[in-house]
Design goal:
alpha+beta; Rieske Iron-sulfur Protein; 2 domains; 5-stranded antiparallel β-sheet; 8 helices; disulfide bond; membrane; oxidoreductase; transmembrane; oxidoreductase activity, acting on paired donors, with incorporation or reduction of molecular oxygen
Length: 350
């Protein structure tokens, strides 16, 4: 035979498949296939598998403990507590503990899932040819079979310790979001239903800061008042005035159509909440001839001669009325609180 050598580019390509079979191909760009599967120590030694199972369970348990710590932080640390933590310096104890515990809870769930997948779940690589988007019945059946096989290979049925601790960690983590609802603020309880008005509280003129007397309010005029004892410099002044703001007008008694309104007035002076019953805007536009007041936000209009009923606009109910009288000093005073909660009609939605 001739000793002439075959060009290297023309040598046949030897290809080993994932099942170990050897194929020969003349195509130098042929798919080399997947390397032979190498079993892990956990696949061969049940004791190693048990160690991995305990490690995963430990991570899920640490996640549960971190979630409990997250919730406990809300109870233990006040919002304004500042602590020194090296190297961060002075930080909020609440924010630092919340970030640390929530981060740990999520990290250990992720780390446990990754360790579980790398050591105990099946790691055999499978190559599948592309198929049409709409699967055939055979493919669907194969998918369900593969899913069942995957569930079996994950050992979630046999590894009860992992399964139970994982479910516990996943069940506790959402509680962090429930606790975060506290940041929306304290529950209003009955604060929205009550104001500072009470029997015996004098009506203080918002302009002069002196008690209002009947002679200060003439027919057709509009006055604004606040409860006696409310300090404009107090930190909660705006909060309290947002509920207790009061407007007064004097109407000829014969022009008042509503009997209860007439009984709750004093010599034709009627007192109503200044807070619109639509979305809580302040009412300040008064039409003397018609006795109508107009909300500047959405044009809700109320008739002060007829129980402050709504005659136009989106407001849902009349303005609450305050029963007033005169004390022994001749000053106007409240004879109780408003007859119903002020502002938007949250209380009607029961």
């Amino acid at each position: 035979m001739s000793s002439q050598q075959i060009p290297e580019d023309n040598l046949p390509v030897v290809q080993e498949t994932a099942h170990g079979a050897v194929e020969r191909s003349d195509d130098p760009f042929a798919d080399p296939g997947l390397p032979a599967h190498q079993p892990r120590i956990q696949d061969l030694d049940e004791r190693a598998a048990k160690r991995s199972e305990r490690a995963v369970a430990l991570m899920f348990t640490l996640s549960m403990l971190a979630t409990v710590g997250f919730i406990a932080s809300y109870v233990i640390f006040p919002v304004d507590k500042i602590v020194y933590i090296w190297p961060f310096g002075h930080v909020s104890a609440l924010n630092f503990s919340l970030g640390l515990t929530l981060g740990a809870a999520l990290f250990f769930i992720g780390a446990g899932a990754v360790h579980w997948a790398r050591t105990l779940m099946s790691d055999v690589e499978v190559a599948a040819e592309r198929h049409p988007i709409e699967a055939t019945p055979e493919v669907k059946a194969q998918v369900m079979a593969d899913f069942a096989a995957g569930a079996e290979e994950s050992a979630i049925g046999r590894r009860k310790l992992i399964r139970n601790t994982m479910f516990g960690a996943l069940a506790l983590v959402p509680l962090s979001g429930v606790v975060l609802l506290r940041d929306l603020g304290p529950l209003p309880e009955k604060k929205l239903r009550k104001t500072l008005w009470a029997e015996g509280k004098q009506l203080i003129n918002m302009n002069t800061m002196k008690p209002l007397r009947p002679e200060h309010i003439t027919v057709g005029s509009l006055a604004f008042a606040m409860p006696e004892g409310l300090d404009p410099e107090a930190h909660d002044f705006q909060t309290q005035m947002g509920k207790a703001a009061l407007m007064l007008v004097r109407i000829e008694p014969d022009d008042i159509k509503d009997k209860r309104q007439r009984d709750w007035a004093h010599e034709g002076i009627v007192a109503f909440s200044k807070v619109c019953t639509h979305v809580g805007c302040p009412i300040s536009l008064y039409e003397q001839q018609t006795h109508h007041v107009l909300c500047p936000c959405h044009q809700s209009t109320f008739d002060l001669s007829d129980g402050a009923r709504v005659i136009f606009g989106p407001a849902g109910h009349p303005l609450p009325q305050l029963r007033i009288g005169v004390n022994s000093e001749g000053n106007l005073e409240a004879l109780g609180d408003f007859d119903e909660p002020v502002g938007a009609a949250f209380w009607e939605r029961g």
